[in-house]
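Reopening this ticket.

The earlier resolution said the output was attached, but the attachment link was broken on my side. Pasting everything inline this time so it's all in one place.
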Amino acid sequence: WTHHDFNLLTECAWINPDTDWPTRTRYKTVVQNSTTKRRWSTKKSKAITRGSICPFVGDLNCRLDNIFLHLPLIPSGSNKNTEPKTCQLLFWAAQEEGQGTNKPAGCRKGVVRCKHCNVHLCIPCFSICHEVEDLQSST
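Inline output:
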């Protein structure tokens, strides 16, 4: 973190504390060689949350970046033996509407992964995610 990053996070949290206030990162406990170690939990692809879609400091602030090509790729591990990937934008919108962890209908059809953002999206949501700045008001 740089001093500029810290100032930017603080300013965003003051402006909109409901969505930009930082939360604690959870630890993942791993058992190795009969000793317990803690390490940061990592995911293979990014999930869409209120904090990650912030266009200034979120994990997915690169989604609006026009310098890089946002190419849809077939998700790795998507064969008949694995569970199909879920569109993260539809899943997030369903959670915001209060459906809990139930996956909405059609969220597993035509899912691709953005090469630059590393997020799983269905074909209709791919352009929405990369063009609409304020996704919270358009849910």
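Reporter confirms the inline version is readable. The first strand starts at residue 27 and ends at 32. DSSP finds four helices and five strands in the chain.
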